[in-house]
Amino acid sequence: MGFSQAWADAWMHVQEMVGGILRALPQIVLSIVVFGLFYLIANWVKSGVKRVAQAADLAPGAEMVLGRLARWIVIGAGVLIALTIAVDSFQPGQLIQLLGIGSVAIGFAFHDILQNFLAGILLLLTEPFKIGDQIIVNQFEGTVENVETRATTIKTYDGRRVVIPNAHLFTESVIVNTAFPVRRSEFHVGIGYGDDVAAAMRLILEAMTDVDGVLRRPAPDVLVAELGDFSVNIRARWWTDSVRSNVLKIQSEVIAGIKERLLAHAVDLPFPTHQVLFHDQTEETDGDRLRQREGWPAGEDQAPESRGIGTSLDRIRRALADLKGEEAQMTAASSQGASGER
Question: How far is CA 98 from the centre of its chain?
Fold first, then answer.
């Protein structure tokens, strides 16, 4: 009796479930149809956003990201509407509230990932640099290979790949060497103090203009930079293509050309030198002592006396002899005073 009753109750429960499903079947079918429509609309929206992004001349990565975002937004809206149709008790506000509470925990758990994702979207939209640009980020320098939503990859000049999180690129300073088509380089040249500065500047300018790859507009120029410790420093400046390989190649040719041009015209290219003055060496072989000498004043009526070791010893002997003479005189005077008292 007990088993039969349990079986009857279970069968009745199954019948109620099947009946509920059959009653809800039109709503379920309608919700599936609505979701399918939103899915198709999402693909159309994605294609439309990509076309708009292409028309706006955005980066390929930006087109992809914007298209995906638009597609998922439409699909999310379709899921909410489909659930509302299929389940009478479902309220979209409850799901949004639940997602709002859960987003706080998700935000703490995936803080870095979300930060890099948002930074990647902003980088793709603002485009401070593009794929193929040569950039410098902290100690890394290379060519941008790809800009993704999480990280940006660059290829260094020695053939290595560096993956940089987008948050670093968005918050730190980035040098874009190829942001403009031309780039200026400069080099300091030191010439001797006895050389003609104007002539040296003209030779340097000629050497720069003779190098292929140095642009005529903007034109190269030459400036006197400073009066250094052992040379007059001249700054040579020229413009080239901004690609690093061209910059280095032309810089090498410019420096080599300046050196050859200056040496061919007997312009001194001094190197650091040190001069040590020994102020106690004023022997007669040093020159005319009545003229100004480095470290010593010029003589007036007679040449300054030598201060060599031998001469100094002679002066010491003479000083000792004078002291002995003074002592002898003092002794004789005291003896005469004593005899007079007697």
Answer: 45
**Would you call 223 exposed, middle or buried from its count of C-beta atoms within 10 A (0-12, 13-18, 19+)?**
exposed
d(CA 242, CA 185): 10
The domain of 142 spans 129-176
CB neighbours of 143 closer than 8 A, spacing ≥ 6?
132, 133, 134, 154, 155
Successive 10-residue mean pLDDT values, the chain, 342 residues: 63 65 69 84 83 71 73 82 71 59 55 80 84 92 89 93 92 92 95 93 95 94 93 96 93 96 93 66 52 53 52 68 76 63 52
pLDDT of residue 323: 78
Distance in angstroms (rounded) separating the CA atoms of residues 127 and 57: 11
**In sequence order, what are the residues at sequence separation of 6 or more whose Cβ sits closer than 8 angstroms to the Cβ of residue 70?**
42, 45, 46, 48, 49
Residues, the chain: 342
* 142, 158, 176 - which closes a domain: 176
- Let me know if 164 is exposed, middle or buried by CB neighbors in 10 A (0-12, 13-18, 19+): buried
The domain tally of the chain equals 4
**90, 80 in Cβ contact below 8 A?**
no
The residue out of 51, 74, 109 marking a domain boundary is 109
User: pLDDT for 258-304, tens place per residue?
Assistant: 999 999 999 999 988 776 665 554 555 455 555 545 555 555 555 55
For helices 92-109 and 111-126, what crossing angle results, to 10°? 100
pLDDT at 199: 95
* 56 three-state secondary structure: coil
Strand, helix or coil for residue 220: coil
Indicate whether 295 belongs to any domain: yes
Q: What is the pLDDT of residue 300?
A: 56
State the CATH number of the domain containing residue 41: 1.10.287
SS3 at position 236: strand
